[in-house]
């Protein structure tokens, strides 16, 4: 398999379904071709005035601002070093985990991962495939309640990652049989993508 960056984002630790699915998917990837980042175990700073200004500053950075820029650069390098991104995206309160949003806020950088041209925005990260593993207690695929998948497609496309595949594990809180079916469908979808 190609070089993989795996992002875990569940807050549920060992109980997480998305983490299990991602781990199953990456178990055959060579260790030297794999980077795993657990965004819940090792949370990134939340976008606030200080982080936003650090990411936009061009000179005279304070030490704190420089460390934010260094972290953002590391996250972007991790994407660039990978061919495939596997992103766990559980649904919490109809959207992605805050921890995953924090990652997005640190990698969406004007002049670094996207730029505006006369023809509109241009993503600067090219040639990547993203597989998003989304786990839900209910069923939302293709419904108005699933605003997180269009959002992820938009924001990944914004930085140039336009080849995005969604793997759904749904109905996980709708009884044992429904949950088993939801997991097994996601596993089959992932097996096809290996
Ligand atoms: C705080 C919280 C909020 C949740 N919100 C939703 C929701 O809005 N819609 C839904 O279908 N399931 C919801 N669930 C159920 C999760 O999507 C489900 O437990 C899923 O397995 C989470 O992925 P994970 O196990 O990888 O954390 C929520 C669960 C938690 C803990």
TrEMBL record:
Co-factor note (free text): Binds 1 FMN per subunit.
Catalytic activity: 2 a quinone + NADH + H(+) = 2 a 1,4-benzosemiquinone + NAD(+); N,N-dimethyl-1,4-phenylenediamine + anthranilate + 2 NAD(+) = 2-(4-dimethylaminophenyl)diazenylbenzoate + 2 NADH + 2 H(+)
Enzyme class: oxidoreductase
Amino acids binding FMN: 10, 16-18, 91-94, 135-138
Limits of the Flavodoxin-like fold domain: 3-192
E.C. code: 1.6.5.-, 1.7.1.17
Keyword annotations of the record: Flavoprotein, FMN, NAD, Oxidoreductase
Pfam families assigned: Flavodoxin_2
Reported cofactor(s): FMN
Function: Quinone reductase that provides resistance to thiol-specific stress caused by electrophilic quinones. Also exhibits azoreductase activity. Catalyzes the reductive cleavage of the azo bond in aromatic azo compounds to the corresponding amines.
Subunit structure: Homodimer.
Protein name: FMN dependent NADH:quinone oxidoreductase
């Amino acid at each position: 398999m190609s070089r993989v960056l795996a992002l875990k984002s569940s807050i549920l630790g060992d109980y997480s379904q998305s983490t299990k699915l991602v781990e199953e998917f990456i178990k055959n990837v060579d260790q030297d071709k794999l980077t795993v980042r657990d965004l819940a175990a090792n949370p990134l700073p939340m976008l606030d005035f200080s982080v936003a200004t650090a990411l936009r500053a061009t000179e005279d950075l304070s030490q704190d601002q420089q460390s934010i820029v260094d972290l953002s650069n590391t996250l972007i390098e991790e994407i660039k070093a990978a061919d495939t991104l596997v992103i766990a995206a559980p649904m919490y309160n109809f959207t992605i985990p805050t921890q995953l949003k924090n990652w997005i806020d640190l990698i969406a950088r004007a002049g670094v991962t996207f730029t505006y041209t006369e023809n509109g925005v241009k993503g600067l990260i090219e040639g990547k495939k993203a597989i998003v593993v989304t786990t839900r207690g209910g069923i939302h695929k293709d419904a108005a309640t699933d605003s997180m998948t269009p959002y992820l497609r938009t924001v990944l496309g914004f930085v140039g990652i336009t080849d995005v595949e969604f793997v759904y594990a749904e109905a996980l809180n709708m009884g044992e049989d429904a949950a088993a079916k939801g997991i097994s469908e996601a596993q089959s979808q992932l097996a096809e993508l290996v």
